[in-house]
Request: fold
Amino acid sequence: MKPKAIKHTRDLMGMTITVEIADYSAKESDIDMVFSYFESVEKRFSVFKDDSEITLINNGKISQSQYSEDMKTVFVLAEKTKSQTNGYFDIIAPDGKYNPSGIVKGWAIYNASKMLLEKGLKNFYVEAGGDIQAHGLNGQGMKWSVGIQNPFDPSQIVKVIRLKDMGIATSGTYRRGLHVYNPHNVKEPLTEIVSISVIGPNIYEADRFATTAFAMGAQGINFIENLKGFEGYMINKDGIAVQTSDFIRYL
Amino acid sequence: MKIHLKKVLVSLLVIVGFVFYAIYQRYFIAQPAMVTNPPPDTVADQSTSETVSTTTVSQAETAPSADTPVTLAGTSATTATTAENAPYKDGQYDGNIADAYYGLVQVRAIIQGGKITDVQFLSYPNDRSKSIQINTYAMPKLKAEAVKAQSAKVNIVTGATNTSRAFINSLTNALSQAQV
Reply:
């Protein structure tokens, strides 16, 4: 008997979120649980909501001792990332307000996946805005197939990879004419990279390193090559893709 | 001895001439031109182009609080024509914060002499981890290929969410404030 799969998509946090579960034991309520979780994340971390915790913090209405556990965690992660990046990553925006959205997405996908694992589910994925955490196998008993979107035509895919118990994130700017420069040498344009997809042990790490690699321009793929446990697929403005040496394992 | 003295004199003459030339260039020629240059903390292309020639997001190079050093240089035909048809008031204009799906984009347009001289990112969603020492990484030979569309059916698609729409949104807003 072919296992049933439940799949739902919702728009939350300004992006499309999809959850698919291929386990026999999958229930609608499992998917509802994930969406409720993302709703709670949005309520807490959305800088667009007047009554979100982050907005209240920014307006001085909540003191540090009153932060929720989630807020404290995100602040710790942000602080850690800040020190790992010599201060370049900072959730403090130019206006002096906190904006942790750069970290929240990968973190929330990762947490949602953990919640499903804790429910005893083994075969599912959680995807939000193009970032994915995939576990177990799909409804056909195969590893989840993931298509890397064509940066020049979002309706196409240019590479198919197979994932199990891993995360993949893509960072980039899908627009020709926007050139990325080395932040340490502004005058020298790097080969214009339009996207880099990074496979990692989980989506939180894959997301952080995809962003890092993207900011490094053409060198980004070497950075991923030297990063144990991560593989990457980078596409430049001329439509040339460069892959790390063990990327082939996922094809 | 005589020949040596000649050499010394010629050398001195060259040196003194060079110094005078340098002083002349520095104080009598270069200075007026420099007044029209942008402050050193912008890296805008000062050519006569009306297009958005350079956009800077470098933390070190621009506003200390700008949260990403990624620098994007872009040209936008729309912006160019707008600038031509409607000169802008000089100053700095911050665009609205636009949602780029998983982060926020906000730009600052800097207008000098009625022209856009710089567009800086005040916030950019890909704003993490920028200070990795690039040159320390080896250059392995990696497999390269031309991308081509695949027809396979997949379970999921990974892609970067589109930042540029938010960029244009924020820039348009900044420029609307700068309209004369």
Observations:
- Confidence is low (pLDDT under 50) at residues 30-85, 125-138 of chain B.
- The radius of gyration of chain B is 25 Å.
- DSSP finds three helices and eight strands in chain B.
